[in-house]
Amino acid sequence: MAERDGAGSRLADPLEPLTLLLQHLRSSAGGLSEREAARRSQVYGPNELVRRGGTRWPTELARQFTHPLALVLAVAAVLAWVSGSPTPGVAITAVIVLNAGFAFFQEVQAERAVEALAAFLPSHTRVLRDGHPRQAEAVVWSRAM
């Protein structure tokens, strides 16, 4: 079954023959026309990557404790305490806390890595418009509010 994007159209496979790839991307060897590029920008928005803004660590850490597996483990811990077995309850609670801490730490490290890699992204690229090469902004970074 072919993968589809959010709009329901088939996603392009970069390993398929160039003619089919250009057909699926609704482009040509001469690139897009200025009019089509403007239309796509209007329909799909700018070529923009959004950074998270502000300090969100309390929310992100809390999200680790409300993960479905963490909730199932919390129920198991409560059942262990209620059944008179505090040792498994303590162990399960420790697992929940350790898992949340490690997951949060990994997420923070991943976000830092993405930010560091963003410095290597080119700010401009060469595109074909109406068959002629020209410079265009490659990716615009913006902050989420």
**Spans of 5+ residues with little confidence (pLDDT < 50)?**
none
Derived from helix and strand composition plus strand pairing, the structural class reads alpha+beta
Strands of the largest sheet, in order across it?
A: 1-4
Helix share, percent = 40-55%
Radius of gyration using CA atoms only:
24 Å
What's the number of extended β-strand segments?
4
Strand residue percentage: 5-15%
Distance between the termini: 38 Å
Q: What count of structural domains?
A: 1
Largest sheet: 2 strands, parallel
Instruction: Report the order of strands and helices.
Output: HHEHHHEEE
What form results from the Cα inertia axes? elongated
Number of helices: 5
Give the integer mean of the pLDDT values. 82
Q: Could you give the topology of this structure?
A:
Blueprint: H1 18-24, H2 34-44, E1 48-51, H3 57-65, H4 68-82, H5 86-118, E2 124-129, E3 132-137, E4 140-143
Parallel strand pairs: 1-4
Antiparallel strand pairs: 2-3
Written overview of the protein:
The protein has helices spanning 18-24, 34-44, 57-65, 68-82, 86-118, and strands spanning 48-51, 124-129, 132-137, 140-143. Helix content is 52%, strand content 14%. It is built from five helices and four strands. Helix 3 crosses helix 5 and helix 4 runs antiparallel to helix 5 (86-118). The chain has one domain (31-143). With 145 residues, it is α+β, with helices and mostly antiparallel strands. The two termini are 38 Å apart.
